[in-house]
Amino acid sequence: MENKNQNSTNLNKFISSTGICSRRDAEKFIVAGRVTINKNVAQLGNRVFEGDEVRVDGRLLKAKPKTLYIALNKPVGVVCTTDSKERKNIVKFIGHPERLFPIGRLDKPSEGLIFLTNDGDIVNKILRAGNNHEKEYIVSVDKKITDDFIEKMSNGIPILGTVTQNCKVEKITDFVFKIILTQGLNRQIRRMCEYLGYEVTKLKRERIMNVSLGKLKTGDWRELTEEEMKEINQMISSSSKTEEASTIIEKQKPKPKKKKETPKSNDFNRKSAAFRKNSPKSKRNSNANSKFGRKRR
Length: 297
Description:
Helix content: 25-40%
Structural class: alpha+beta
Radius of gyration: 25 Å
């Protein structure tokens, strides 16, 4: 029995995990006889095993997919978009069965570290420029790097109608430098170099926040570790959504119609509010609205 329980989930927890309601509301649905497991009316304390069909008011519940956080060493030529019309888009390149989207961008001619996830909240938080999340790059240019170049790159360059924030720049060889940014302007490093008369010949992102490429080979990806995610969540704990971040992620996702409608039967997992309206606590609706998704009159 103990082994079975390890591979199962408490019913109220399972219902809550689908996002339709809280555990407390889930218990109310169970007590009211509105929940079935494999067509049998459920009771408090029942557990859900893999393959079980759980329904509320006859509507099948689907568990949310596992939250994924992936680090990819992007090759040159891959485009950071989810647009299926782009033959070399990053999602096709990875070929993961879950629907993922990139966190931020890395130009087509650039390579290196980029995160992908199915967690929209963390995208907004990481992209928020004001949080000073560091990104480290190794850059090769076509001319010898001077002290003047390093100083000007470090102290701000006028591009895209603004002046770039101060950043850390370090000369590695005559033609290679390291730069650590906390901004994410479009083609920022290339534009900064162009302003000073230099052309970037190679650009590779080596680190985002606390995660480095390490031994990850070009084209390979791995899931972020629990320790890495714990540290990232600590770093973004005070972050919130911003217009900049929201705009980026919304461009990557299909835009849903923002029409307020009473949920239809196939909208079951998305409209938890209807459950609260129909909960047994509301005497007014307990009989007339026992079915989810009653049409407006």
